[in-house]
Task: inverse folding
């Protein structure tokens, strides 16, 4: 098994997690013995990632910055098999959810996770959540610096941070190290974008107050350029201002985005900068050797440049149309010549988006060991990524993924749908999401048609909390409950491409569940008839506006 | 034909503490996974009593509450809301997938 090229836990990390598991084991024992009431126990289980959903407990496992080793993925498969129903659901926050965990098994599941330096900390509660990052980090050709170094520094600072354990509400941070944002940084409480200034220094643009949910807002720039060594002090100052002024009287107004919206980013900046000035030269100023020590653990794998044009690959492209399409949609350029980043689509036709069985997880781990330096990434678009594959190995990787059912050539296409668990699982949902995604997926399953339609992102949420990111879908679909009937509100024009992060606009009245596919079909037909060369669906929408789409959809349904 | 759609008929439900499974309170004061065994309260007063009983039988369950149901002529009961239908009968994927295949 190859060495991993990301942060490895030390004894301190391991003892922290081990202690936490034993604490929770005792808490579960006391709850089952009736020594703790549910009211007393609920916050304890939630801080260990254990939610109670419609049919069962759900364990949300943290996958920090979406990075996994093959060993860790095999352990996740093992836990899914031993303690759940043999599958898991990769989420839009790069986590894994197991939907059928028993309370009595949860401590053992957490102990098994701890064996591979994993846990469920920071996956619930009003605190700084698991930090997310570009899923191509450390491999992308357009990357300025690996954002995971900074995710890990934030993880070490934020885990069990005593001052920020009871924030007004949860707090999500995302980081991108590339100009082409793949981490949706403008729709997070704090988004960080690494960039290089005119003096050739690399630092952060700090973006604050973005978010989806009930009140979708695009984040605003709090600091144009922050020197890297000042990151923690600046975040500490930002969290202090939020902790002090964030609303605790109204759940729906408690996120930092509402504070920024209500008082203005200028006022928030004034407060943050004043706080920052008081602490910036203190203990949180990052010493170069501290940064270097973390950065060393993310040293790139020892890849040597290889042939970029491989006759076997070219031959298979001509022979196998699906492989040719897969190369177009599911591979991305790698920083080392002769290599590629491969996305394994967890969206085979008609399958629940983001679900993987234990066998499939083990299969991906095997492929990663053999062809991708033992590394896997989870994308916020609910796919798995093999970040370091030699181009000459692409035919073998494609065949191996096909055997697992994860070689659908649909990444970025109409069937690469993001969907939250929805009313089939979630205690908060108003309507189902997964069955809607399945119907759309089956309707548009033909690959050549998908590639003709081109890049089109459909995102589905089963309630206004927007875990399915419907606000930023080219086509967003929101399930609502109207007098006990599921209806689906369609919005168009959302996008998270950097520099043009846009929230979708509601098209018109919600449509019935059995009309959603027809509505999407009408939207696609309108696009195909009116698009200009090179235009994506969302580009055509921006050019011609909503009316032609609206006329077609409401004429059809 | 379904009757009592006004929500007058109610059963007590909860999640089982040890595994989170959906359970219903039966006439003997036991929690069961089988909806057909649930005790049905037929008026407001009975429903209040049923909920109180559920709360006193709450050692092994979490957060009991009342679920509005309908009852057909054969005495079969079914939750009124989709959410409670899904809680009572499980994931809808298989049924929907079959529909989707036909639709496609």
Result:
């Amino acid at each position: 098994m190859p060495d991993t090229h990301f942060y490895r836990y030390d004894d301190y990390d391991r003892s922290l997690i081990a202690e936490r598991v034993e604490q929770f084991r005792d808490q579960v024992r006391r709850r089952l013995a009736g020594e703790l009431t549910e009211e007393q126990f609920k916050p304890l289980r939630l801080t260990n990632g254990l939610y109670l959903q419609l049919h069962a407990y759900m364990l949300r496992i943290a996958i920090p910055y979406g990075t996994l080793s093959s060993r860790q993925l095999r352990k996740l498969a093992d836990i899914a098999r031993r303690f759940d129903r043999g599958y898991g659901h990769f989420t839009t926050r790069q986590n894994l959810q197991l939907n059928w965990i028993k309370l009595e098994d949860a401590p053992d599941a957490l102990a098994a996770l701890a064996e591979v330096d994993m846990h469920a900390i920071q996956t619930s509660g009003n605190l700084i959540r698991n930090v997310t990052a570009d899923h191509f980090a450390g491999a992308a050709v357009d990357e300025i610096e690996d954002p995971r170094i900074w995710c890990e520094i934030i993880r070490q600072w934020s885990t069990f941070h005593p001052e920020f354990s009871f924030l007004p509400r949860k707090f999500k941070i995302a980081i991108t190290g590339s100009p082409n944002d793949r981490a949706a940084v403008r729709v997070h409480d704090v988004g960080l974008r690494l960039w290089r200034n005119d003096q050739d220094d690399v630092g952060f643009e700090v973006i604050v107050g973005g978010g989806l949910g009930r009140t979708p807002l695009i984040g605003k720039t709090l600091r144009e350029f922050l020197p890297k060594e000042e990151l923690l002090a600046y975040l500490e100052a930002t969290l202090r201002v939020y902790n002090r002024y964030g609303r605790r009287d109204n759940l729906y107004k408690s996120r930092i985005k509402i504070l920024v919206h209500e008082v203005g980013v200028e006022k928030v900046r004034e407060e943050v900068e004043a706080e920052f000035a008081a602490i910036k030269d203190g203990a949180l100023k990052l010493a170069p050797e501290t940064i270097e020590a973390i950065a060393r653990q993310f040293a790139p794998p020892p890849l040597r440049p290889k042939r970029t044009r491989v006759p076997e690959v070219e031959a298979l492209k001509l022979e196998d149309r699906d492989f040719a399409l897969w190369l177009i949609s599911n591979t991305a350029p790698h920083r080392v010549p002769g290599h590629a980043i491969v996305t394994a689509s967890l969206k085979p036709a008609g399958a629940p988006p983001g679900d993987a069985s234990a066998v499939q997880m083990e299969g991906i781990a095997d492929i990663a060991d053999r062809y991708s330096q033992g590394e896997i990434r989870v994308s916020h678009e609910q796919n798995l990524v093999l970040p370091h594959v030699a181009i000459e190995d692409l035919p073998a990787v494609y065949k191996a993924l096909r055997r697992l059912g994860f070689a659908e050539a649909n990444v970025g296409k109409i069937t690469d749908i993001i969907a939250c668990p929805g009313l089939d699982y979630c205690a908060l949902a108003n309507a189902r999401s997964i069955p809607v995604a399945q119907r759309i997926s089956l309707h548009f399953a033909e690959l050549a048609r998908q590639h003709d339609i081109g890049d089109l992102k459909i995102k589905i949420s089963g309630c206004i909390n927007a875990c399915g990111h419907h606000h930023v879908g080219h086509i967003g679909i929101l399930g609502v409950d109207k007098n006990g009937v599921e209806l689906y509100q369609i919005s168009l024009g959302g996008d998270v491409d950097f520099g043009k992060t846009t929230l979708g606009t509601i098209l018109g009245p919600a449509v019935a569940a059995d009309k959603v596919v027809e509505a999407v079909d009408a939207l696609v037909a309108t696009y195909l008839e009116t698009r200009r060369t090179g235009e994506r669906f969302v580009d055509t929408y921006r050019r011609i506006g909503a009316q032609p789409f609206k006329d077609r959809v409401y004429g059809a349904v | 034909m379904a009757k009592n759609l006004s929500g007058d008929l109610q059963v007590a439900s909860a999640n089982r503490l040890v595994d989170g499974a959906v359970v219903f309170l039966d006439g003997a004061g036991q929690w069961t996974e089988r909806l057909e065994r649930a005790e049905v309260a037929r008026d407001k007063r009975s429903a209040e009593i049923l909920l109180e009983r559920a709360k006193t039988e709450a050692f092994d369950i979490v957060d009991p509450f009342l679920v509005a149901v309908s009852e057909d002529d054969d005495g079969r009961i079914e939750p009124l809301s989709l959410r409670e239908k899904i809680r009572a009968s499980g994931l809808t994927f298989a049924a929907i997938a079959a529909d989707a295949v036909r639709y496609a």
